Amino acid sequence: MKRLAAAISLVLFLSCIASAQIIKLPPLGPRPTPKPVSTPTIGPNQGPLGPTNNGSARPPQATDKPELLKTSLDIRCDTWAKYWKLPNESNYTSWVPQVKFKVLYAGTAKLRLTAEYFTPDGKPWFTETLKQDMINNAEKTVGIITDRVPGRFDGKATIDTGLFGVKIVDSGDGSVLFQGKFKVGKFKWGPSIPMFKNQYDFFVDQDWNLPIGYIWLNWKDKNAPPPTVSMWIKGETRLDDLEAKLFYNGEQIATTDDMGAVHSVQQRYPNSLENKETHRWELFDFEWYKFKYAVTAAGRNMFKQARFMNDMNGNYTVKVFHKGVQIREASFSVSGGNLADNGVASANKFGDGKVLIPVKVMGNYDKWNSATWQADAFYSNPLTGFPSM
Question: pTM value?
Answer without folding.
Answer: 0.85
